[in-house]
Amino acid sequence: MSIEILMPALSPTMEEGSLAKWHVKPGDTVKAGDVIAEIETDKATMEVEAVDEGVIEALLVDAGTEGVKVNTPIARMAGEGEAPAPKPAPRAEAPPPAAAPPAQVPAPAPVSAPPSASGDRVMASPLARRLAQAAGLDLATVKGSGPHGRVVKADVDAARGKAPAAPPSAAPVAAPSAAAAPRQVQTLAQLGIPDGSYDLVPLDGMRKTIARRLTDSFRDVPHFPLTIDLEIDGLLAARAKINAMLEKDGVKVSVNDLVIKAVAVALKRVPEANASYSPEGLAMHHHADIAMAVAIDGGLITPIIRKADTKGLAQIATEAKDLASRARDRKLKPEEFQGGTFSVSNLGMMGIKSFASIINEPQGCIMSVGAGEQRPVVRNGELAIATVMTVTLTCDHRVVDGAIGARFLQAFKALIEDPLTMIV
Fold it and tell me: What pTM was estimated for this model as a whole?
């Protein structure tokens, strides 16, 4: 029996993607783990692996096709031990409409072949495998409800005694995103701007996602800013000494690395600021997973330094450099930019003195870091000069109120102005 390979959802927010490249052709035999295609999402280019053996019968979507909806059939395969169909179906010029996903499966991965006769292989989606591994659950004990008895996320959730999560509200948000460009054209026309006097750049997946998420955040999250000035001459001197010690290892610590470390330590000292809002309650996070904003072509992405509170400056600097490099090449894995408990956005290197960022949901806070510059300060009634940096903390008022935000900034200020306290 032929098996359809579906367009996978490679992240919880993915609604469509571009089929960038095929690594197989009709007639090819593939094994589990073989890379069969490359999918471009709104954040990265991801490789799609086969989940079982079989023979590719037909490629249903051409390489280079954009806007392929999640769950759309992209290829057809004959299962292990089966002969391929004699006449492969012709390639579709455009992806067919996405079939509505089953209610219990928010993000199905490509459909796999049925279990082998030996029963040695447990058929499961990659997401289900990851969830089961994280929960210490034996997939062999889970009854699959997917096609051909395949174990999917809802089955793992049920086995853990957890109700399956509701699928993302794709339908309500898809229409506004898709309609954004037409509304812009109409508005320009209404303003009397004639056609042909401007170039309209189509919205790619990343820009649509940024527009939707930030609009939702700014509209729905009750937020407020707190701004503070920090004297960083001691920080700059400490950085010079640290880099001199790390020079032999080829590691260079940036001001942003020191900011990330200080944020992580301050979150441990004021744990109420390391929280997220949910309808079920406030999630008080055990570790400081710091998302750092990285500008890439066409948008922004926030790779995450996991458990930054447990890491030294050299490790943070090394990870930050690697994540930023792969982010610009769109080579990050979903788990490297999804999640996080707190965000840091630094525009100081671009000369921006002060700004306020939009909250990166569901995180409770985001810190905006400005440029360090020499400014006049008053010390003991006398005028002096210091290198001063302005930071603004944007808080979700449902999670972090003014007093908590102020206490966090006090702890952060003490760490930045006396860097030795980061290690005690």
Answer: 0.62
Rounded to 10°, the helix 233-246/255-269 angle is 110
Kindly provide the residue ranges of all beta strands, DSSP E only, lying in 217-308, ordered along the sequence: 223-231, 275-278, 281-284, 290-292, 294-296, 299-301, 304-305
Question: How many other C-beta atoms lie within 10 A of the C-beta of residue 240?
Answer: 10
User: How many other C-beta atoms lie within 10 A of the C-beta of residue 370?
Assistant: 22
Q: Is the pLDDT of residue 32 over 90?
A: no
* Residue 368 · residue 342 · CB < 8 Å: no
CATH class label, 2-159: mainly beta
Measured distance CA(182)–CA(175) in Å, rounded: 11
- Residue 198 in contact with residue 188, Cβ under 8 Å? yes
SS3 37: strand
348 has pLDDT over 90: yes
Annotation marks residue 397 as catalytic: yes
- Among the residue ranges 185-189, 237-241, 312-316, the one predicted with the least confidence is 185-189
φ and ψ of 315, to 5 deg: -70, -40
Spell out the domain ranges in the chain.
2-159, 170-206, 222-423
Burial 21-47 (b: 16+ CB within 10 A, else e): ebbbebeeebeeeeebbbbbbbbbbbe
Structural contact between residues 369 and 347, judged by C-beta atoms closer than 8 angstroms: yes
What was the pLDDT predicted at 43?
66
Mean pLDDT (the chain, rounded): 82
- Cα 152-155-159 angle, rounded to 5 deg: 145
Tell me the pLDDT band of 83, cut-offs 50, 70 and 90. Answer: low
Closest listed residue to residue 293, CA positions, set 259, 244, 247, 262: 259
pLDDT band at residue 113, thresholds of 50, 70 and 90?
A: very low
In angstroms, the CA 71 to CA 89 distance is 18
CATH number of 222-423: 3.30.559.10
Helix (H, G, I), strand (E, B) or coil at 38: strand
Say if CB 231 and CB 415 are below 8 A apart: no
- pLDDT exceeds 60 at position 325: yes
CB 72 within 8 A of CB 4: no
Q: Among the options 23, 148, 287, 397, which is catalytic? A: 397
pLDDT score at 240: 96
Q: What is the mean pLDDT of residues 389-408?
A: 97
